[in-house]
Write a structure and sequence with these properties.
4-stranded antiparallel β-sheet; alpha+beta; single chain; 8-stranded antiparallel β-sheet
Length: 524
């Protein structure tokens, strides 16, 4: 019964469009299997010669036949297995994205061999012919072919056929960043083939989705700084395409630049002084270009950084001479696509003297396993867990049932106070108040309930930080955290996940309390 209840609270947030297309694609697939339908894998095309400025060079993911994605490597001694699944679906996806075509050490001949090998095996390719990898691969092939001014009819005809498959399988059942990636890729395909049908659909998707997915403060609405960087890169690449090629030039350029300016402003507002992003929600290092690289690329394209105030994203940033602190007082993201959200309301991350002190646990996997559940859980974040429950019911890798909502928010230049109702199912409201001073932050938690509950506040420290507990104080070099009203304070261990498939041993502190807790982080 609980599973049905949880499922109901998950699907009730889906848009009618998502439900319709899930059913439509499922029924269509069954009918096509009965009829023996298959897509043509080559369609005669007449591509145009494009002009593109160099984009951001990607890290080397392929050297001497060794493919390295997500910190896992594999060498194909003979034939490449484009369905290689030992390391999970995301690794297989990365193999078929072909982003390595645009790495700094990729040679033209090697790239052509890889493309043609994929084409020769396309009849047996599975995951790589899904919409998302087709979309990313299309952009990467076009970048590569344009860079070297390659004209190869076999490649072009295969690419055109793949775009027709994508057009017939747009990810309306998922929406979010998936559909936006579809739109960006269709724009590249439209320009490359001068195809009006591809362009019309690309324009429709981009106008609609950019308007919805870029919030007023510039954040991408899934609230992951990593995905924000990815979407910003796609925007900048699309500006590069439209700005440097005359076909349809005036239609989308203003929209693309306006949204890129906003997103660039948000990224610089949320990033720490060292340029790193906070690992909020599904975020990881070394997946995307850095903030500095995106700034430079935008400057080359004459895209100006927008002036933004953090608001609609729910994130706030406190910046003083000695410390920076990111605070989450927002909802978990779009209700109909919360797959990259964590149960982390009132989480905070802090750098002191330019170095990470208090961190988010991070992201190491997209596999539906126990590790994924841990990383999305409330106890993996710097917030309060009540009765061992998650504030928002994350489950199944990318699902969320009941979710915490902000029901009160009051803020000024010194105080941020908010209340969420994630625990209302057990009769609890949680209020957290941040009081900001020049060399300290006071964090006060209030549990509003008619009955007693087991409450635990978590603090996760960077692996280089080794805190010591003395009486009611947590001591870390020149920083101390004074605790009031705690029942028990204990040091524990956790695994910090700064990158996919990378876990570092680190220290956390669990603070048990009843109705009220006060923590003062002091910087001496």
């Amino acid at each position: 019964m609980y599973k049905l209840f949880r499922l109901f609270h998950t699907v009730q947030y889906l848009k009618c469009r998502q439900i319709y297309f899930r059913l439509f694609y499922y029924i269509r697939k069954l009918l096509r299997q009965l009829s023996g339908f298959s897509y043509p894998l080559s369609i005669v095309s007449q591509p145009a010669q494009l002009s593109l400025r160099p984009s951001i060079p990607l890290t080397n993911a392929l050297l001497d036949r060794e493919f390295v994605f997500l910190n896992k490597s594999f060498v194909f001694l003979n034939k490449i297995d484009w369905n290689f699944s030992t390391y999970g679906k995301l690794w297989t996806y990365n193999l078929t994205y072909f982003e390595y075509l645009n790495q700094s050490k990729m040679q033209q001949d090697e790239g052509l061999l890889l493309i043609k090998d994929f084409i020769d095996q396309m009849l047996s390719v599975k995951d790589g012919l899904e919409s998302f990898p087709i979309a990313l691969r299309g952009v990467n092939w076009i970048k590569f072919l344009t860079k070297y001014e390659i004209r190869d009819q076999k490649i072009d005809d295969s690419l055109y056929a793949q775009y027709k498959i994508l057009l017939d399988n747009l990810e309306y059942h998922l929406l979010g960043n998936h559909l936006l990636e579809n739109g960006f890729s269709l724009l590249f395909g439209a320009y490359y083939f001068k195809d009006e049908e591809l362009y019309t659909k690309a324009k429709e998707i981009l106008i609609t989705e950019l308007d919805e997915q870029v919030l007023r403060d510039g954040a991408h609405f899934e609230l992951s700084p990593m995905y924000h960087q990815i979407m910003l890169l796609r925007l900048l690449d699309s500006i590069n395409l439209v700005q440097n090629n005359s076909w349809k030039k005036s239609d989308l350029l203003t929209l693309l630049k306006d949204k890129a300016s906003l997103m660039l402003g948000w990224l610089n507002a949320i990033a720490f002084d060292d340029g790193t992003i906070p690992l909020l929600n599904d975020s990881s290092f070394n997946i995307t270009p850095t903030t500095n690289e995106l700034n430079l690329y935008a400057e080359q394209l004459k895209v100006k950084k927008g002036s933004v105030i953090l608001k609609e994203s729910g994130y706030r940033k406190v910046k003083k001479d000695r410390y920076e602190c990111i605070i989450d007082v927002g909802n978990i993201g779009p209700d109909y696509i919360p797959g990259h959200a964590h149960s982390d309301t009132f989480n905070f991350i802090m750098h002191v003297d330019g170095k990470p002190l208090i961190v988010d646990t991070g992201l190491s996997t997209y596999e539906t396993n126990q590790r994924r559940m841990i990383e999305r859980s409330t106890s993996a974040h710097n917030t309060v867990e009540v009765d061992g429950l998650n504030q928002s019911e994350v489950w199944g890798g990318f699902r969320v049932a009941r979710r915490a909502k902000i029901i009160h928010l009051d803020e000024n230049s010194h105080i941020i106070e908010a209340t969420h109702d994630g625990y209302k199912r057990i009769g609890v409201l949680h209020t957290r108040k941040f009081t900001v001073n020049e060399r300290s932050i006071v964090i006060e938690d209030y549990i509003n309930s008619a009955s007693k509950h087991q409450c635990i506040a978590y603090i996760h420290f960077h692996p280089k930080v080794r805190p010591v507990i003395k009486d009611n104080k947590i001591i870390i070099d020149q920083t101390g955290i004074i605790i009031d009203n705690a029942i028990k304070i204990e040091i524990g261990a956790y695994q910090y996940a700064p990158e996919f498939n990378k876990l570092n041993e680190a220290v956390s502190v669990k603070i048990a309390f009843e109705n009220r807790l006060k923590m003062e982080i002091q910087i001496s």
